[in-house]
Amino acid sequence: MFGWTGKLLHVDLTRGTCERREIPTEILHAYLGGRGLGVRLMRDYFRLGPFEPDLPLIFAVGPLCGTNSPTAARLACVSRSPLTGTIYDCSAGGRFAWRLKAAGLDALFITGKSPQPVFLCVEGERAELHPAQSLWGKGVKETVAALKVHGSVTAIGPAGENGVLFANIMMGEGNSIGRGGLGAVMGAKGLKAITVQGDGVTGVADQERFDAARADVMRLFRASPVIFGELGIAEYGTPALVDLMAQRRMAPTENFRSTFFAESGNYSGPAIRKECGARKEGCYGCPIQCKKASAAGEPLPEYETVNHFGALNGISDLHAIVKANSLCNELGLDTISAAATLSAFGEARGRFPDAAEVAGLLADIAYRHGQGELLSLGSRRVAEILGKPELSMSVKSLELPAYDPRGAYGMALAYVTSNRGGCHLRAYPISHEILRKPVPTDRFSFSGKARIIKIAEDVNAAVDSLVACKFAFFGATLEEYGELLSAVTGVEYGPESLKAIGERIYLTERFYNCANGFGRANDMLPQRFFEEAGSAGEGIDVPPIDRARFEEELQKYYRIRGLDEQGCFGGRDLLAELP
């Protein structure tokens, strides 16, 4: 078999055992890897609560990992979120994914709860659990430094150990399995870290076809102004979006009370380069190199992070924002949820945190000290406890990222239909509504958006299962990646078959969520967006969203998906129909 290894490592932390098992070939062909494989492997477990020991925590790579397919040194982590209660996946790049594949594995499947803190060490065919009491309580950097002799490291910080509902799992190179609190799931299992090392090689079925497909992808990357243009993400990273979102009047400001922050230029892409001496970095083997690091090698914040520790909290101090990002990485906190929770808390108490306060609040959250005990629960629970539930800017308890839905109606619909909660990466309509790629659409219209979002969700589910980076698709398409996949595996995949796989994955997630009580009532934006206007200016008006029109398009989306009016399956046993 080419592309896949056909093996997973089942780790039972309760019994202290590690056992290699076969993955049926038909499951790999039907779900690819990454997100899709993880979601399929959850089939017998999706009703378990996030902190139940038998709930699996799954790390899965894709069939392109281990080859030099552009942006494919990635993995997905899949489980159930303690923040949202939804089925959850998160993708991250770095050497860890590459080395997991080189150890002969498509997935790690981790269940149980260790009586004492441990770390998992995978070295080729061998896998062992080792005591980690000495590392418990340590930050991410110290943990990685102590374990890197064993290979690539992924670890949790104090936030994951202490059950913060938005704790991350951090990759040793600075990337994060962020959003949704999977770090808290790992911490509840008593698993501090995982190390992987291997020397296996991923075979390619047709090298000549692969080389031609790769050349096509690279040509499209070079032709893309979003990727390699003068103001593209290769030059400035995702903070290249700061000035664009300001110009479009859709930068979430002061807990989404407004959509423009006059001082956002302080943390734009060019400002970060000038102030921090930003240099290019990126995921292992990635040609785009969208990550940016300071002259001292410290990872610099992404667009979502600069906006949320900036405009969302009314802070213009770049160095405070960079410090907040570094602290979140060290403590193992999701930057979007952490900043949005501080913002909701700020509005509820009548005062947003100032730049000097943020670091102390983040430490309190990670260790659940003082106010951090409340803030560790995320914005929905914080706002409810404070008696102001309307101040949580979240969908399905997941805090919204840095695109105000009043300024892009496809984004408004995508936030509520996302299976994991308020997420911009399930469909990413920003590409056509704001970046005008591949075809521009009217951002202040719902017309046609239901079908566009459905197709984009299916495409992105396939992308997350390959596992490739979303940024690659500012240049390439599923056609080129289908050709890469066919060349690697020797199995023919085209755009339509990949979209069908994506649809299968999306519907499976939706089915799990509906079985766990999610439905139409959860597919809703906060009231603020229907009642309050955004910030007008420079000839742009940002009115409240028309709720009736939003509801109409949501029902159209359900019909296109084959769902009932409650957004569920009406008694249909979807899983019985699927491989």
UniProtKB/TrEMBL annotation:
Domain named Aldehyde ferredoxin oxidoreductase N-terminal: residues: 4-200
Pfam families: AFOR_C (PF01314), AFOR_N (PF02730)
InterPro entries assigned to the protein according to its UniProt record, in alphabetical order: Ald_Fedxn_OxRdtase_N, OxRdtase_Ald_Fedxn_C, W-dependent_AOR
SMART domains assigned: AFOR_N
Domain of life: Bacteria
Full protein name: Aldehyde ferredoxin oxidoreductase family protein
Organism: Geomonas diazotrophica
